[in-house]
Amino acid sequence: MLRKLNGIVIKNIKFSESDRILTVFTKERGKVSILAKKANSPKRKIITQTAMFVWSEFMCYPGKNMYTLRSADYIKGFYKIENDLERLMYASYIAELIDIFYDEELGETITFNLLAFTLKLIEDEKIENLSYITLAFMLKLLGICGFLPSMENCIVCNEKKSDIYYLDRVNGGIICGNCKSRDSYLKQLNDVQLKLLKELIHIKLKDLRDKDFLSVPKKSGEYLITVFDDYIVYTLGRKTNTYKLLCQMIGF
């Protein structure tokens, strides 16, 4: 039975000389794999519709392990991303985060909307704001999936005021300096960084447009990406391939 799937391509890999396997995050069925036969053939006329970060409407036949593509209609692309290495790296990282967070046929419409809006922000916003946008995406994805750590107060003594906090990935929350142990997995957070995290957790994505982050050093946003990538890897037991390249680019 033919099915219509509305989604964004988050992975596009070569399967054979002419065929490709797409990983698409859809509104209807979450993450799905789609076999696109003769995807590279100009006669097939699906090259644009199946490219990375393109939002298309896919008509597919369901199979045992994946769908098979019949046709695809283009809806929207984020072409500025492809033409800028820094934007491309951040976009590739969030796409891979979606991939490791969700198994096949799992996902929510809210996550699709988060992905689509974040790609638009990465395409349009100032380069210096991309780390904050990516960090907001990570926090909101953790919240949607039920993995967001507790950051309102120290999870040991309930203290709300401290100059230095640490993210405890094992116990899923922050601890203050007085409760800190010597465990190497603790990641330090200062008051400015914790304030930023709390703001990004609650902010609406549309309010990130043209937002002024001048009060927070750019390196803080980039450092917090490394902190929460470490938390994600520990929590999920999975890691992205893009992260090391992203760290090289931002200097961590």
Written overview of the protein:
- By secondary structure, this protein is an alpha+beta fold.
- The protein folds into 2 domains: 75 residues, Beta Barrel (OB fold (Dihydrolipoamide Acetyltransferase, E2P)); 171 residues, Up-down Bundle (de novo design (two linked rop proteins)), CATH 1.20.1440.
- The chain is built from 7 helices and 8 strands.
- The protein has a 5-stranded mixed β-barrel.
- β2 and β3 form a beta hairpin.
- It starts with a strand and ends with a helix.
- The mean pLDDT is 91.
CATH superfamily of the largest domain: Recombination protein O, C-terminal domain
CATH class of the largest domain: Mainly Alpha
Q: Summarize the biggest pleated sheet.
A: 5 strands, mixed, barrel
Neighbour order of strands in the largest sheet: 1-2-3-5-4
Total separate domains: 2
Taken in chain order, the helices and strands follow as EEEEEHHHHEEEHHH
Number of helices: 7
Give the distance, in angstroms, between the N- and C-terminal Cα atoms.
49 Å
Mean pLDDT: 91
Q: What is the overall shape?
A: elongated
Helix fraction? 25-40%
Unreliable segments of 5+ consecutive residues: none
Radius of gyration: 20 Å
Under the CATH scheme, the architecture of the largest domain is Up-down Bundle
How much of the polypeptide forms β-strand, as a percent range?
Answer: 15-25%
